[in-house]
Amino acid sequence: MDKYAVFGNPISQSKSPFIHQQFAEQSGQALQYNAIKPEHDDFCAAVKYFIASGAKGCNVTAPYKEQAYKLATTLSKGAELAGAVNTLTFNENGTIIGDNTDGPGLVEDLKANNANLQGRILLIGAGGASRGVIKPLLDCMPEKLVIVNRTEAKAKALAERFKSYGNIEALSQESLVLEAGFDIVINSTSASLFNELPSVPTQIFTNNTLAYDMAYRNEPTIFCQWALDNNSAKAVDGLGMLVGQAAVAFEIWRQVMPETKSVLANLRAELI
Questions:
Q1: How confident is the model at residue 164, as a pLDDT?
Q2: Catalytic: which of 65, 135, 144, 234?
């Protein structure tokens, strides 16, 4: 039976085994998918041991995405630009292919929620989570993609890195007050995990805004609730992105794109 896994630390909370087993059942494929926490935090050694056991691929979550990027012998364009890898494929010739499926997963979930991807998009945060989604967002040809970050220099560096792919700009948190509202506001920071809000003004929201938090909980995240309380038309958490990025990884490995709507519904029910 083909073996796959997700590597992370912590990892006990991971929903990836549930998601991929659902994908396997709906597509009639026999595979094994586990969650692995590397011993002594030795990611590379753990992955190489997994490969030696006959594994076909793995997903990678925090804090190992940059280590996975370095471990890969071949990178997709998306992974190369992001500087981070969340999906590894192990070939029989010894090559390790690194992909980043976070961006495609986010875009598909935004489409499923009828987001205006050709409008004005605000991306809050300039860390690894944001790097992985910028190119796929720009591929949708938005009117403008604005990045804002607590450290403005990091936002400017990202805008410079991706400027050849579309209309992208970095702004300070203070200057956002002067901006009109955005069609999509994406929180890529980890603030919601600590029940905190990013330092951005409420002027970013209008009654046409779809607010999106990459974090998820069994109830609305603090960011989603804050957006709704400040006039946003809709607020969505990152559970659909989680399922979407997993579906893209599954397709890379198995050459089958699974249906995600029912899996998302089942996963949402598991959280309640």
A1: 95
A2: 65
- Catalytic annotation on 65? yes
Q: Report the distance separating Cα 156 and Cα 158, nearest Å.
A: 5
Residue by residue, DSSP assigns the chain as -EEEEEE-SS-TT--HHHHHHHHHHHHT--EEEEEE--GGG-HHHHHHHHHHTT--EEEE-TT-HHHHHHH-SEE-HHHHHHT--SEEEE-TTS-EEEE--HHHHHHHHHHHTT--TTSEEEEE--SHHHHHHHHHHHHT--SEEEEE-SSHHHHHHHHHHHGGGS-EEEE-TGGGGGSPP-SEEEE-SSGGGGT---S--GGG--TTPEEEES---SS--HHHHHHHHTT-SEEE-THHHHHHHHHHHHHHHHS-----HHHHHHHHHHH-
pTM, two decimals, is 0.93
Assess contact for 233 and 208: CB atoms under 8 A. yes
Using the predicted structure, report yes or no on whether residue 180 has a pLDDT greater than 80: no
pLDDT digits (tens, 9 = 90+) for 12-52: 889 999 999 999 999 999 999 999 999 877 999 999 999 99
